[in-house]
Write a structure and sequence with these properties.
With 950 residues, the chain is of the alpha/beta class. Among the domains are: 333 residues, no CATH class; 192 residues, Anaerobic Ribonucleotide-triphosphate Reductase Large Chain (Alpha-Beta Barrel); 112 residues, no CATH class. Helix content is 39%, strand content 15%. Strands 5, 6, 7, 8, 9, 12, 13, 14, 17 and 18 form a ten-stranded mixed sheet that branches. Strands 19-20-21 form a three-stranded antiparallel sheet. Strands 1-2 form a two-stranded antiparallel sheet. The longest helix is centred in the middle third of the chain and has 29 residues. It is an enzyme of class 1 (oxidoreductase).
């Protein structure tokens, strides 16, 4: 055992293997050319980064004259500049070039590699520096966000994004849990832990009283997380709370968040501000954590047979209560159906693939469930951009991929040598076991570009082969590193178990059923790498107890200009893209034409299909596209969305080739049943997953769909119209024309029925909102009758519109109406919609209410904010209508405004226009853009913020 001093002054234990004293890494050039610096091979340009809140135009961030390569997108430039450049904006110390950022990080890695004996000759260190620089510059991979935040700065050199804590059944340990979580949240990271050591509320204390139970202590931790979040952070605290299925309080834990969701529903219907940042949401508990149940194989076998399962006392281990396994599993599925929590973690599978069981069991995970290892540990992540390895002929360049993994794993291990950690216990465990988490992004884009459906045998075979190759090379490189600087400190004690797990990975590789030349070539190389991995590992051991995970790749995915994150399929076929110089446009994903060419379509056909997708958002009935190819273009959302089991099968295909697990939420339609959720959770266990979470559309009433300030709903006061004559009621005839409009405002769905006189405008309305028999439904019925009677007595519609538009209360936010994109309340939306349908342009112009086509025409006519040119507006709108072909089919009412004519701020909002309904995604609290799913978290395309760990 030797000790080496790290760059931060800490001592790190290093165990030298045989021949390690004189061995050094030999680094070969892969991407670079000797004598040419990577920066000299690209064209650089200066850009202005001005990031605004797209809703109100306020500036969130501004830095002008930043330097980036010309092939970096505007979005990647904006996010890197605003998130990762260090130094106060406007000062000389502020970074202003991508060169400075990459040099700051790479130079720190190279320096540490030399100091800690990784490189022998200076030439090897220089080649390593150039290769790492080239790969980062060309977006081949990215480190996780803490590296970009901290490395090379005066801040603590924290490189890990994922943390696991521990808590024991003592008050000192519980209070220390609160403290340690707070420190991690303060640094912008997330943590998870298992509460199963804490005595249940059904057990006695030594003093004779009854224990509080873990759920009660969860309240304090949740309040702490919420307080730290509200103290200036721009995102929610990310945390995971796990409870074992044999804990006596398991039923209370399962139902905890479902009961709170009932509270959210009741308070929101009563008019309280239940938005994520609302003033009344603090009364709802347990909302800052993801909850998961850790189920054992024993429990799952009892579920299969319909048997009883014992709940055990924490201190003695004796069974104190028996429960029906099927009933308990159904409660778990029902709670997840109601509010998406708890998720499920499969303890048997997790610990069967555990490389260091002699040092302790794996009991918990990080907040996104991809990192699973010992308590009080951390993992630093890096992800490859898979599209960078796709050749022009449609093949996957496996050899280049393998060489890239070598370089990245080397860099990741070097970082542990100089890293700082939030607690001494986490630092000690991480240095002793050196957990790494290499992964990838853009799998969905790669599969589509190679002509594979995401939910297909061919797609799963290619994904499994790539993941197997990544893990094999990572562990082979780890074994080579062990031969240079020694295996991890805990290896000797766990050598047999680690070797067993490596053999399991290699055996799983042999079971991959390849279907095409592409996946066969990748698996063939993976097979050779597994052989090399075992040969080198058996000689030297391994440098790292873990090597891989599949993380969400949220912000770093945007940094690499990835179309898809982590293991996810494409969100939709049409994307929202920012343009140089400002503005934005919708584009069809660039992987679509690439996939069409791989499938054998000619350029004329590709152009016609892409144009169709741009107009409709899907491929159904696209001209010339064969129906058997539709599945290649299936996405996470849209008209042809991937079935929930398709997501589970993809996870199962790659799980055997990961040290950790997969950050992914299986989305289910709103119509999904509790039984279907139960089946998904059961199949996850049967298929060998380590963790699984589901989300059923619209299951969370409190979903934060509006970041605007809300106010309590107030009772609608009777309007006393001023009339100059005795009012006479003009009743509607028995048979009258009418229309019904379905709408969504801030996630609340409803229907507006409007009846009119045959010759004289609107005469009645009926609004359906809320469940039948609820207070809200009753109030809306009474309100509708009052408005209808007022209309029939002669109160002008424009009077009602002027009174009710801009009225603010919840629900509020995004709508599914292209003419009214954002509403401050349901009444604001309803009367704007009625004005558009029943008032002439002259009166609407006075009220400032226009259709999407009319607003577009104003922009096209260089309308400058003065008096509205009604005649010109009619002419412009009329000309656009006349320009359509005479034989063109009439658009559906909800499709009158083309998506590109309506202002949106993200791909999710663009998708909502195509779907005609709101997506269950929060608005970013930083810039107001609607976020999109990224693994188990949400990602903002506008500013790069995430709702979970980086």
């Amino acid at each position: 055992m030797t000790e080496t001093v790290g760059g931060s002054g800490k001592k790190t234990a290093t165990r030298n293997g045989a021949g390690a004293k004189n061995a050094r890494l030999k680094v070969e050039r892969v991407y670079t050319t000797e004598g040419v610096h990577p920066y000299d091979e690209v064209t650089w340009e200066h850009r202005d980064v001005v990031m605004t809140n797209w809703r109100d135009g306020s500036v969130n961030f501004e830095q002008r004259g930043v330097e980036f390569p010309d092939f970096w997108s505007v979005n990647a430039t904006n996010i890197v500049t605003s998130k990762y450049f260090r130094g106060a904006v406007g000062t000389p110390q502020r970074e202003h070039s991508l060169r400075q950022l990459i040099d700051r990080v790479v130079h720190a890695y190279v320096k540490a590699g030399v100091e800690h004996g990784y490189f022998g000759a200076d030439g090897d260190a220089l080649v390593f520096e150039h290769e790492l620089t080239w790969m980062l510059l060309h977006q081949v991979f990215s480190f996780n966000s803490p590296v970009w935040f901290n490395v090379g700065t005066t801040s603590p050199q924290q490189v890990s994004a994922c943390f696991i804590l521990s808590v024991d059944d003592t008050m000192e340990s519980i209070l220390n849990w609160y403290r340690e979580e707070g420190l991690i949240f303060k640094g912008g990271s997330g943590a998870g832990l298992n509460l199963s050591r804490i005595r249940s509320s059904k057990e006695l204390l030594s003093s004779g009283g009854t224990a509080s139970g873990p759920v009660s202590f969860m309240r304090g931790a949740d309040a702490s997380a919420g307080t730290i979040k509200s103290g200036g952070a721009t995102r929610r605290a990310a945390k995971m709370v796990v409870l074992d299925v044999d804990h006596p309080d398991v039923e209370e834990f399962i139902e905890t968040k479902a009961r709170e969701e009932d509270k959210v529903r009741a308070l929101r219907d009563a008019g309280f501000d239940m938005d994520l940042g609302g003033r009344d949401i603090v009364s709802v508990q347990y909302q800052n954590a993801n909850n998961s149940i850790r189920v054992s194989d024993e429990f799952m076998h009892a579920y299969e047979t319909g048997g009883q399962f014992g709940l055990r006392a924490r201190m003695t281990g004796e069974v104190i209560e028996h429960v029906d396994a099927k009933s308990l599993f159904r409660k778990l599925a029902k709670a997840a159906w109601e509010c998406a929590d708890p998720g499920i973690q499969y303890d048997g599978t997790i610990n069967d693939w555990h490389t260091t069981p002699e040092s302790g069991r794996i009991t918990a995970s990080n907040p996104c469930s991809e990192y699973m290892h010992l308590d009080n540990s951390s993992c630093n992540l890096a992800s490859l951009n898979l599209m960078k390895f796709m050749s022009d002929d449609g093949s996957f360049n496996a050899e280049l991929f393998a060489k890239s993994v070598e370089i990245i794993i080397t860099a990741m291990d070097v970082s542990i040598s100089f890293a700082d950690f939030p607690t001494p216990a986490i630092g000690e465990t991480t240095r002793d076991f050196r957990q790494l988490g290499i992964g990838y992004a853009n799998l969905g884009a790669l599969l589509m570009a190679t002509g594979h459906a995401y939910d297909s045998e061919g797609g799963r075979a290619l994904a499994a082969s790539i993941t197997s190759l990544m893990q094999a090379v990572a562990y082979r490189r780890s074994a080579e590193l062990a031969g240079v600087v020694g295996p991890y400190a805990g290896y000797a004690r766990n050598a047999e178990a680690h070797q067993r797990v490596v053999r399991k990975h290699a055996a799983a590789n042999d079971t991959i059923r390849t279907l095409h030349a592409n996946d066969a070539a990748v698996r063939s190389l993976a097979t050779r790498e597994w052989q090399r991995c075992q040969e080198v590992g058996n000689r030297h051991g391994w440098r790292n107890a873990q090597a891989s995970v599949l993380a969400p790749t949220g912000t770093i995915g945007l940094m690499m200009d990835c179309d898809t994150t982590g293991i996810e399929p494409d969100l939709a076929l049409v994307k929202f893209k920012k343009l140089v110089g400002g503005g934005s446009m919708q584009i069809v994903n660039q992987t679509v034409p690439r996939a069409l060419r791989v499938l054998g379509y000619q350029e004329e056909q590709v152009e016609a299909i892409v144009e169709y997708i741009g107009e409709h958002g899907h491929v159904v009935d696209a001209p010339g596209l064969r129906p058997e190819h539709y599945e290649v273009f299936d996405c996470a959302m849209g008209d042809r969305s991937i079935a929930p089991m398709g997501h589970v099968r993809m996870m199962a295909a790659v799980q055997p080739f990961l040290s950790g697990a997969i950050s992914k939420t299986v989305n289910m339609p709103e119509t999904a049943t509790v039984e279907e959720v139960e089946e998904i959770y059961y199949e996850g266990w049967k298929l060998g997953l380590k963790a699984l979470a589901i989300y059923r559309d619209n299951c969370k009433v409190g979903q934060p769909l509006s970041a605007g300030k809300s106010a309590k709903a107030t009772e609608t006061k009777a309007v006393e119209p001023v009339v100059e004559y005795r009012p006479v009621r003009k009743r509607l005839p028995k048979k009258r024309p009418s229309q019904t409009v379905s709408f969504t405002v801030g996630g609340a769905e409803g229907y507006l029925h409007a009846g009119s006189y045959p010759d004289d405008g609107l005469g009645e309305i009926f609004v359906k909102l809320g469940k039948q028999g609820s207070t809200l439904a009753g109030v809306m019925d009474a309100f509708s009758m009052s408005i209808s009677v007022g209309l029939q007595y002669g109160i002008p519609l424009e009077f009602y519109v002027s009174k009710f538009q801009n009225l603010r209360f919840e629900p509020a936010g995004m709508t599914d109406d292209p003419d009214v994109r954002i509403a401050t309340s349901v009444l604001d939306y309803l009367f704007r919609r009625l004005a558009l349908d029943y008032l002439p342009l002259e009166k609407r112009a006075q009220l400032g209410i226009f259709t999407a086509d009319e607003r577009t025409a104003q922009v096209a006519s260089d309308y400058n904010g003065g008096d509205v040119d009604l005649e010109g507006l009619r002419t412009s709108v009329g000309s656009a209508e006349q320009a359509a072909p005479a034989n063109a089919p009439s658009p559906a009412p909800e499709a009158k405004a083309r998506p590109q004519d309506v202002k949106v701020g993200s791909s999710t909002e663009l998708l909502e226009l195509h779907l005609g309904k709101a997506a269950d995604a929060p608005l970013c609290m930083t810039c107001g853009t609607k976020m999109r799913p990224a693994g188990s978290c949400y990602l903002c395309e506008g500013c790069g913020s995430t709702s979970g760990c980086s």
